[in-house]
Design a protein that fits this description.
three-stranded mixed sheet
């Protein structure tokens, strides 16, 4: 026994892939249920140990950055990256991509920026 609390581990799978936008085809984060354009990319339980697997199907690099979740991860073109964070208490936590990759997706919530929803 490590002495740590038995917190549930949540594994979330997301992809970065080209989607149709009013400006044409641009890369976007697609949530685990295949949703794109949702204000919340995915929900997790408060205080869960969260593993996020990102498959970048785009030809360019991206990031998943969320200072409030303690996450700043680079994701190379064509790469699969797994990162971890401990979910805080209930609330909505902003995330964004730091790499300018398309004017429309960078300026609309749910594509290259949005929220992670933490529920009790």
């Amino acid at each position: 026994s490590s002495g740590q609390a038995n917190t549930p581990t949540t594994v979330v799978h997301v992809t970065i892939e080209n989607v149709k936008t009013p400006e044409g085809s641009e890369p976007a984060y697609v949530g685990p249920t295949g949703t794109v354009g949702a204000k919340s990319l995915f929900p997790v339980k408060a205080h869960a140990d969260v593993s996020v697997v990102v498959v970048n199907k785009d030809s360019g690099p991206h990031t998943f950055s969320s200072p409030s979740l303690g996450v700043d991860v680079s994701i190379a073109a064509g790469a699969t990256v797994t990162f971890h964070f401990q979910a805080p208490g209930s609330g909505s936590y902003k995330w964004y991509c730091e790499v300018p990759c398309g004017p429309w997706v960078m300026s609309h919530v749910g594509y290259m920026k949005g929220k992670v929803t933490v529920v009790s």
